[in-house]
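[step 3/7] fold_predict: job queued, chain A
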Amino acid sequence: MKKTKTLKLVSAFLILILVGLTIACAKPAPAPAPATTPAAAPKPATTPAAAAKPIVLRSSTYSPTSAAYQKDLAIPVLKRIEERSGGRVKFESYYGGELLPYKEEIEGLRKGVADFIVPSIATVYDEANFPVFPVMYLPAKYSDAKVGTYIALQRDSKDPYFKQVEPGRKGLKSFGWTGAVAYGIATTGKEINKPEDFKGLVLRVANLMGELTASGLGATPNRMPPNDVYEALSRRVVDGVILSLIDIEGYKQNEFLKYYITGICLGQSTAPSFMLQEKWDSLPPDIQKIFETTFEETAWEVAEKWEKKQQDLMKDWAAKGSKFVSFDKLSPDVQKLIGKAAVSSTLGWIEATEKKGAPGREAAKRWAQWLKAGGGQLFPEVEAELFK
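[step 4/7] structure written:
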C-alpha cells in the first residue's frame, strides 16, 4: 500500500514537470500595443504628376507689361496654363526685351536663351525670315478683332502654308491668337478734311505695308518699333500713327494723339507665339492640349473684350477733348484717296514681296478668303485685282 502511494506521488510529480516544460517551450502571443500609441500614417500615393518636378519654361517678349498683348493676352494665358496644369507647368517670364531684344527673339529661342516667345515681335519687323507675315496689314474696307482673330488662327495655328513658306518658322511650333482691332489713323491734332491735308504729315508705321499705305495717302512714313513711339510723339518727330486704339492705349500714345479716323481697316496686327518644335514634342500630350485650348479660348474672349473696350476708349477720350471721325463721314475726296491708297499699297506689297522670292499674291489671296470667311469686307478694287 505504501509502495502504491509512492508510485502515485512520483507519477504526479512527473506530470507536473512535463506540463511545466510544455508551457515553457510554447511561443508567447504578442502583447497588444498600448492604447495610446497612434497608428502609423499611410504614405502619400506617388503618382507621376505628383512625383515629377514642374516643367519650367522661360518666356520672353519685347512687349512691356502695359501693352494690350501682355496685360490682356499673354499674362492671363500663361497664368491659365499654370493653373490648368495643376502646377505641372511654371513660367519664368521676362518683358520689355529684358531677356531678348526683338531682333534676337528667334535666334535666342533656337539657342535656348528662352523656351517660349509670347508673342514674337520679330515677325512684324524681320521681313527676311517672315516675308509674308505682314499680309494682315493689308487694308480692308471692314474688319474687327473677331475677324482678325479668325485670320490669325488660320495663319498661325491651323493652316500649314505659312510654316512652309517662311524661313523663320522652320523648326518652330506656333500659336495664333487675337487679331487686333482694325487700324485707323490718329494725329496729334491735324484734321483731315481734304486730300491735301495728308501732305507733310509724318506717320509712324510698323513695316513695309505701313510705308506703302502712308505714302499712298501722300503722308511721310516713319518706320520704328512700338516702344520708341511715345518718345517720338513727345518730341514731335512724328505727327501721328496708323494703329488701333487698343495699341494706342497700351503704349500710352493717347497722351499726344487727339484726332482719330475710325471705321476703316488700314491693317491689323497680331503676333504669334513660338516654341521650338523639339521642346513642344517633349511635353506630355495632356499639357500640349492645355496650351492649345487655352490659347484659342483666350483669343476669342479677348477679341470680344477689345471690341467693347474700343467703344469705351472712344467715349472716354472724346469726353477729354479728342475728336473721332468715321470713314463714311469723311469728304468723298478723302474716302476716294484712302480707297486708292488701299489698292496701290496692296499691289505694291505683293510686288515687293515676290521680288524677294516669296509668294506675296498667294498669301494675299489666302488673307482675303479668310477675311471674308470671318465676316470682313474687302475694297472692291482690291478684290478685283487679287482674283482677276
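[step 5/7] annotate
The chain has 15 helices and eleven strands.
The radius of gyration is 35 Å.
exit 0
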